[in-house]
Amino acid sequence: MSDATRLTAADRPVLAQLWARTSRIDPRYLIAFLITLVLVCAQFRYHMVGGYDRLALALLTCMGTEALLSWFDRGRVVNLQSAYISGISLTLLTKPQGAALWPFALGGFLAISSKYVLRYRDSHLWNPTNFAITVLLLTAPDKVSVLSHQFGNDLATNLVIWTFGLIIAARVGVLHITLTYVLSFLVLGTLRAAALGQPVLPEIAPLTGPMYQLFVFFMITDPRTVVKGKRKQIVVAILIAIMEALIRFASDKGVILPTAFNAAPAFLALATVGPVAKFIDLRRSPRRGSGVAPAGNTLPRNDSAMATR
Questions:
Q1: Are 103 and 61 in contact (CB under 8 A)?
Q2: Can you point out the beta strands (E) in the chain?
Q3: N or C: where does the chain have the smaller number of CB atoms within 10 Å of the terminal CB?
Q4: Which of 212-226, 261-275, 282-296 is the most confident on average?
């Protein structure tokens, strides 16, 4: 090898060095860092947490439930970073009436217990936070709402979160899911605006809000509940975007829907499409230990990434 082709670590650009170093970090830590960054931005700039008692209760319930159920189910306490992510997500996304705290306790229990109860072939079908918020919105729409536009469209805040979010999504290997959904949302939002004779910007503006930031970086990309295979993941992301657009269009046309569909169409779209796609994917895949390789293109399994949430 010549001196011209021999590069030491010091010769590489700083960004390339940082990118290489992050490859050695457990993806769970990257995801935990991102959700913590969202929490910090939300609280110190907009005071969105609504009280640290909510945060403490959500985290305690999620992590305590995870510890107890994993010990009962597996005989050991699993890594609690998944529960940590669920606890912070619930704190940010759940907006109860008044100063009620019960939605954070109930939501935390529903989120984590769903991973152990609603399973098929040893895999849970719903993203835990998505499942908990969907249940709360469907059963108590007059008591619980969901975060919407409280971040506003502040450029600096959005730039920080989207920059870190896209970098971490790329490192974890789910960037294609995020970008597919974002592009689908923009296209479908434009079409919906044209069909309704409305301006385009108000239709696509929700994408810069905090609810969608959490959705595209934490829910729709959940490694444990996405289908296997990059192509199938892209198809499912498009289907979720289409379902959301249909929910919004039906609401615009006066179709009577449960309040939850109007309050959080993206969450309900994921809650209906995602589990069905996951169930079909698991059913078509060979059981573990069968010795039969799955057909089609699949992504290499990343155990550390698959263990998140």
A1: no
A2: 94-96, 119-120, 123-124, 144-146
A3: N
A4: 261-275
